[in-house]
Amino acid sequence: MALEPLTDGLCESNGGRTTDSEVPRPTSRHQPELGPNPNNFSRLCSRDEAERAEALEELTQNVMSRLGLDRPGSARLDKHTLLQLLRVSRSCPLQEVRERAAELLRTAQERGVEIPQALASGPSAFIPAQVILEEGPDEEVLIEAFLSLGRFDHITMVMALHPTYLSCFLRTQHALLELDGPLPRPWRHYIVVMAAARHQCSYLVQQHSAGFLEAGGEESWLEGLQHTHPKIRCLHTLNKLLAHRPWLITQQHIQELVCPGADARWSLAELIHAVVLMTHSHSLSSFVWGCGLHPEPDHVGGHAFCPPSPSNNMPQSSHSPAPEDGKPEDGVTEVEVLMKRMVELQQQEEECSQEEMITRFERERSESIPTAVVRGAPSDLVLRLVEDAEFIYEDFSIRGEQSPPTMRAQDYSWEDHGFSLVNRLLPDMGQLLEEKFQVVCGLTYNRMAMHKDVDTYTLRKALWNYIHCLYGIRYDDYDYGEVNVLLERGLKMFVKTVACHPEQTTERVYSAYWRLFRHSEKVHVNLLLMEARLQAALLYTLRAVTRYMT
């Protein structure tokens, strides 16, 4: 089937080119053109202001021509164009572009065209849109992200609450997906798709299915793993282990993929590229679920070709709702108690024995923390890309004698081992990942809830180390008693759910902890969670690669 060449950036569609079965389809060259040239959309994000103005004028003229203003009853616009206009009208930070797209949609509706309506008022089901507008960065940051990405999606909108982190995240993602590397561009997007499917993350599946097709990928691959290249199919086992139980990865798994006699052999450089892509996708799925991100307006589930019902408007309050039996004063007490504990830990001089440190680690690792209720069955769009769907994270607390050995950070760490190996096999990627880890761990505004001039280092370190603890990684020089002191049970439940079972995250789990904290502070928790999870999975795989190489 011949494919219409699609442009990068703004003309991409996540949900607009879908059939009733929700599988994105490329456009055939033989189909009649019912909308403007896709280049008009991509040129809207040009850094040249004159070119943007010209593209906007051409888009306007093309749409008006299709609406047949001089020929009553002849108005025709294709679904893809309508969804592109909807997305631009909702999220473009350039006011003249955003307002023109909205005006074109209104004109189309007046001409009798059924136009799409966004089903959500903002990017997140957990964070009110007004909060993101009020706490978000300056307009220059938003415009730069738009011009760099070619679109301004919900992930970027929420991450923009922390602009310093956003900039290094976008650099890393751009290098993974777009810059020179051992894997073809279509494969990169497909690997992200198959990894996101492990966590039922329809958001990333749709977004990168579109990217896969735009990069020239075979449409049939989206029907299931059995239709892909044999090398891609061989990643299935490694993908599910990375997503759910990375501690089980051994040098044997690496050998089966890269040894000279293996079928569909991977080079080590290709494999490291694929591993970083998979861990990026798994951890980003945690962020999507942990922040309650809505589908994009042009995604399946993000729009309807009719006025949305009141239930779809999802009205939201301006603060995190407290549990039904919560009182405002309870939240104040919660903050004061946490601050007092942080100060006490910083002043504490007592040292524990190594045996006691290990005991406290094991206590945290084996603590039974329930996760949220299981969601309904995922869509066919996701299920067709998953094999062995019953394979999920297995709680350390129920393993008993089968509990795998702990990985001591002193024996294999990112700083001393993983960084150099990634940089050797995938040049510059180690540095990009290191920058991201450093930024998220050092990110602070010296405030906590309603308090300013607060040193949050001990809290950030407790969160990072607790996430690694859930993945069986222990730091000999860290007292895990601090985790139990600083992280209350509601926060532990949120962290464990998002890190280990992200598809089970609910608004109630999000709202049940830190009730008086800013939403931006909860997004910071999600960023720490995402990066700690990514590093943990990488460490187990890189250790296996090192053992294979030696």
Automatic annotation (TrEMBL):
GO cellular component, one term: nucleus
Keywords recorded for this protein, A-Z: Cytoplasm, Oxidoreductase
Catalyses which reaction(s): a hydroperoxide + L-cysteinyl-[protein] = S-hydroxy-L-cysteinyl-[protein] + an alcohol
Protein's GO biological process: cellular response to L-leucine; cellular response to leucine starvation; negative regulation of TORC1 signaling; positive regulation of macroautophagy; regulation of response to reactive oxygen species
InterPro entries: AhpD-like, Sestrin
Pfam family of the protein (one): PA26
Compartments it resides in: Cytoplasm
One Gene Ontology term of the molecular function aspect: L-leucine binding
Residue numbers spanned by region Disordered: 1-41, 302-330
Keyword Nucleus: no
Stretches with biased composition (Low complexity): 311-321
Assigned protein family: Belongs to the sestrin family.
Entry-linked PANTHER family: P53 REGULATED PA26 NUCLEAR PROTEIN SESTRIN, SESTRIN-2
Protein name (Swiss-Prot/TrEMBL): Sestrin 2
Gene of this entry: SESN2
